[in-house]
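Input record (one chain):
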Amino acid sequence: MNDYQMGVIESRFADIIWENEPISSTELAKRSEEVLSWKKSTAYTVLKRLCDKGIFQNNKGVVTSVISRQEFYSARSEKFVEETFDGSLPAFLTAFTARKSLTPEEAEYLRRMVAEYEEGR
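The corresponding structure, as predicted from the sequence alone:
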């Protein structure tokens, strides 16, 4: 698994791309100025950094994602569980629910996920 990482501000910038792709680099710079109050040079610097990380690509001035938002956050979540809870999803859920209660809807959703997983095995 690639080690995709972004800080909070980079994540906000990435959201602009994911929400508008394909987007021209010029339009991305304009939106970054509107949303993040960035200068064009800042937007281009951060875009290059995220392209170098393999998250986005800039092909002839058109910016698109290499991985989707869902893929990015799934990889980050997987890495967090692996590093923090030795890969144990039950240990993560135990820690999570120790401080935050699940809603009945969330609990039902988890039950359905487990049932679907068991049916698919």
